[in-house]
């Protein structure tokens, strides 16, 4: 069995930054893959996500995402990576791709060198303190809100950048990921907001750039700042930037990506 795998750095315009994802280009007509194989391949790639796009008979695509430990319902950077590969390889006709996913239909379209991804909005709901959250992050938490991730609002971008959390303690919190965030400094050339995302519970210590997280914190900061167009900086070590457009119950995320590896996985 041979499977072409393309590795892409997403939400960046240069190699070795942003968030890497693997895109497995599999001809399902040749027999397809079972879920155990998909999970094993994601573990072998050992990236935060490996994406599996499959062409449908109606011209749309099915898309699934696997971390090294589990399948996930939504992944922004691996969706961007997949759209980048399909557009670059000429595997789609026209400027738009419709992906059928566990989070519904996601539409990606070209915008020059960038890809605009239309995702469902997932605004967080304010909640009370989460036991152990501040202690695990190692900093005071001003506010907590929840969606499918837990959001911890802290006092400044510098606090977000300096975080060195206790990942073992964070893994004990019942959530896919913990998002630490603060209002940014647009005048200083940074962004409307900054964030970092820690997901040890699903096998990811820190995700470098997390598109799905911005469907949560984008609406949060949009409401607070009175804006529908925001710039975001996920200030992990690799770092990444994206545009966020709030449109009712949808969020459009704009980013660029670069291909860094293209090879073939060969198995007996």
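Q: What amino acid sequence fits the structure above?
A:
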């Amino acid at each position: 069995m041979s499977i072409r795998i393309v590795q892409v750095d997403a939400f960046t315009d240069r190699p070795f930054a942003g968030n890497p994802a693997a895109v497995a280009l599999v001809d399902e007509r040749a027999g397809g893959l079972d879920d155990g194989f998909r999970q094993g391949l994601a573990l072998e790639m050992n990236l935060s996500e490996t994406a599996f796009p499959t062409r449908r008979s109606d011209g749309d695509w099915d898309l699934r995402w696997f971390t090294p430990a589990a399948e996930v319902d939504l992944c922004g950077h691996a969706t961007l990576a997949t759209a980048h590969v399909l557009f670059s390889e000429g595997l789609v006709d026209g400027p738009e791709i419709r992906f059928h996913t566990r989070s519904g239909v996601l539409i990606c379209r070209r915008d020059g060198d960038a890809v605009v991804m239309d995702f469902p909005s997932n605004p967080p709901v304010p909640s009370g303190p989460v036991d152990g959250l501040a202690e695990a992050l190692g900093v005071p938490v001003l506010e907590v809100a929840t969606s499918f991730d837990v959001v911890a609002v802290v006092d400044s971008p510098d606090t977000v950048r300096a975080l060195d959390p206790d990942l073992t303690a964070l893994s004990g919190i019942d959530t896919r990921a913990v998002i630490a965030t603060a209002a940014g400094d647009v005048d200083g050339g940074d962004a409307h907001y900054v964030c970092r995302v820690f997901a040890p519970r699903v096998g990811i210590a820190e995700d470098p750039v997390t598109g799905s997280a911005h469907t949560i914190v984008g609406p949060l900061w949009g409401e607070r700042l009175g804006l529908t167009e925001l710039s975001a900086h996920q200030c992990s070590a690799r770092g990444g930037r994206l545009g966020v457009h709030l449109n009712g119950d949808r969020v459009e995320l704009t980013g660029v990506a670069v291909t860094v590896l293209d090879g073939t996985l060969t198995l007996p």
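Q: And what stands out in the fold?
A: The helical segments are 35-45, 76-88, 133-137, 157-162, 167-170, 211-225.
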